[in-house]
Structure formats: C-alpha cells, structure tokens
Specification:
single chain; mainly alpha; rod-shaped; Glycine zipper family protein; signal
Length: about 120
C-alpha cells in the first residue's frame, strides 16, 4: 500500500510541475517602445485565437492512453494485476499531462510567432 501512495505522490508532483510550466507558456513579453497599446491588445487577442487552434485535449488523451498501456504492461511484467492497474493509472496521468504540456508549449510558440509576424519584437 505504501508503494501506491508514493507512486501517486510522484505522479501528482510531476503533473503539478507540468501544469505550472503550461501556465507561463503563453505569457509574452514584447519591447513596447513605439507600440500602440490598443493595437497591441487587438493583435494579441487575434494571435491568441490563432494559437487556440492547437489541440490540447486530443493530445492529452493520446498521451494518457499511451501512458496507461506502457504502465499497465510494465506492471504486469514486474508485478500482478493489482500492480498493473496502479501502474496503468500512474502512466495515464503522467502521459496525459506530458502531452498536454507539449501542446501548451506549442500554443505559446504559435502566439509568439504570430506577434513576430505582425512586427512586434518578442523578447521571450
């Protein structure tokens, strides 16, 4: 039982770190010298709409499925059906969070590229 608690704690901590990284991936810093704030807000909103076209839900689901399969297989090899179930659950959490994090990073990159394309000097 202690093993399950430790595995769950590790999975939750990893997920929290990924989510924290995702939260900052769309924060954009520009050099605002000579920039009209109203025009920038309009361009930022339009670029965010474009960036939101990157799918996160499907990527997260695919990562969760892959993580569950790998975790379950490893649990079955190195343990019993109970271990396989726990490992599949942990693999699903980690796989889903990892893919969601990658998709959020891609959204941030699309947002930055869009703003650069509109003539802003993006600093991050």
């Amino acid at each position: 039982m202690r093993y399950c608690s430790t595995s769950l704690l590790i999975a939750l901590c990893g997920t929290a770190l990924l989510v924290a990284g995702c939260a900052s991936s769309k924060r954009v810093v520009i050099d605002d010298k000579g920039v009209d704030p109203a025009a920038y807000q309009q361009d930022l909103a339009e670029c965010q709409t474009i960036a939101d076209q990157v799918t996160t839900g499907r990527d997260a689901a695919g990562g969760a499925l892959g993580g569950a399969v790998i975790g379950g297989a490893l649990g079955a090899i190195f343990g019993n059906s109970s271990t396989a179930g726990r490992m599949a659950g942990g693999g699903a959490v980690i796989g889903g969070a990892g893919k969601a994090g990658e998709a959020e990073q891609e959204k941030g990159q699309v947002l930055r590229n869009c703003l650069r394309g509109r003539g802003y000097r993006v600093l991050n």
